[in-house]
Amino acid sequence: MNGGFKKLMHVFKSNMLLLKLLYIDILCGFNLSASQAKASRLFSTFTTHKFAMESSEDDLEEDETEWKQLLTDSPPTSRASESSISKTPTPAPRVILHFDLDCFYAQVEMIRNPALRDVPLGIQQKYIIVTCNYVARQQGVTKLMSVTDAKQKCPQLVLVKGEDLTHYREMSYQVTDLLLSFCPLVERLGFDENFVDITEMIEKRLPCTTEFSFKGHVYSTSSEAAKAKASIHPDLALGSHVAAELREAILCQLGLTGCAGVATSKLLAKLVSGTFKPNQQTTLLPENVDDIMGSLSSLRKIPGVGHQTAKRLQALGLITVRDLQLFPQAELIKELGSQSAARLKNLSLGTDDSPVNPTGAPQSLSDEDSFKKMSSVKEVMDKIQQLLTSLVERMRKDGRQPQTFRLSVRKFSASNKWYSRESRQCPIPNHVGHKITLASTDDVPAQLLTMAMKLFSKMVDTAAPFHLTLINVCFSNLQKRASAARTIGAITTFFSPSASPQNPAQSQIDSSTSGSGVDDHLCSLGVMTPLIPEKNTSSLTSRDAASPQATPTQNTPSKPHSSTFSYGGDADTTATYRLPPNVDPQVFSQLPANLQTELMREWEQRRPVLKIPTVSKKPGREAKEKKGTGRRSQANSLLDYFKPALDKL
Ligand code: DCP
Ligand code: MG
Ligand code: MG
Known about the structure:
alpha+beta; six-stranded mixed β-sheet; binds 2'-deoxycytidine-5'-triphosphate; binds magnesium ion
């Protein structure tokens, strides 16, 4: 009996470990040609799964979806299109950085409790150590080890529960925001990774630099050889300095260490960034692309190649990256179609033209939990209530109003154990949606729970026995709050082409942090000086609520100069606000009061006021992307009107 139980537990744990491993693979994969919407979705997939291991099967589906899109998408940039036409000149090389924080959840916990710094620390989700600090790694503990095995390896291992992602999520956004304060082209990947396209920054910095050297490691190149290579690849050499400065900023301002990769594409930057860990960085030179691609131990190591795709390729006899490189293109096309085959072949050769797509706000917020068995209505109600409590709080911090509520369940079924999610959704009445945006942490509107249970009864016959293994609650179709929309009214919708919500990722970009502003500093100071706008008092996203003690702030960045301005808002509000530094207060004061109010509200909500150069897209993609949140094209053109100087930047 006892032996049987042990065996059962073993099978259960191995299953979880397997799923966890799948999950990590999926997280490591990324959609190299992802549009904004896809990037958000990928991000929200990561962020909304409470227990990563249980969500892996869904991520797998997601991964395959991403993968299909990856394979069917045309090259997204004009640069990419050009590259496929042999007559056009080869596009100028880009400089892309990839950042991956060290033992992320563990670092967040060590910041929250510094006593954990010097002890071996494991972050536990259910029976798995999702990550552990490097002290624990030295003692043989690895990521995704079972708790039992980890304890065996390291009996003094300290365990912290990592099932509540709130602090990780908040810190994750702070990192992205910090990077955004240096450069507008930042794309999140999961919780602890970001891509940054610093090509323009480098172009501006190059003329100011006479001596070139590499910071950190150069892949497969000795330090002696690297010295000689620096003047041959001055852009990458400078890029390595920028990467070092950004890592330094993340350390000084947020207390986090991480690794960086410097290369000419997202694919290569990601592949190279983990070469030396922790807290190091590596640059990949074009002449070493073959080496790094050849060093990958399997096709799954190519970001974007998921489990299913690897299986399809395996059916063609392709196991290694080399196999794929050498596989006849005609046969690959037969299996995958021409675009997908081309994309895949390119990836295997280390070619990737996909742009860094600045990540916007997630299109939906959700939360979920999984369990071995839930079979009573009471348990279901309690769980939904619990999930809604945290979700409503996140929604409130987000500031937008959800229009749709979705409930998903996973029913246990022996035949289709891991894939059987079912969902039902319904519109959220305006008064309930409004309540959600106002609710306090533990105040879930009763109507919401009623709605959830109605949806539940459409999926599960509660009169018969049932067996659930997962419940997910989701708010989608997030829109700016009705009150705000009412007040801002026609003019902002006129000036902002989409009614989509503001982009928190961009929300802290001050006009004074435009590329050239920063680069002027780069040139004159030789270091990067982030120009972070002063924190707005209104809390818009969960990251604004990060606990101050979690954020050691040495080297506080210089604040931009900005003018203050009083304006009469609604009848009951008159406030003094800081004007964007490049808005002329005198010009502003000439405007009608209601227009001032609207503009200041925009500013208050930290919409981007700088016009960031947009990457040209294929026309077909535009409509799709307009749906995305906070596109760069939504820069406030009226504010631009006040600061003609910006146009010249
Ligand atoms: N994570 C998770 N489940 C997984 C993989 C990761 O919950 N299967 C979480 C925990 C990690 C975080 O995501 O801290 C980032 O994942 P990484 O793979 O980057 O791992 P770490 O940052 O922890 O360690 P490293 O220093 O190796 O990057
Ligand atoms: Mg990572
Ligand atoms: Mg990491």
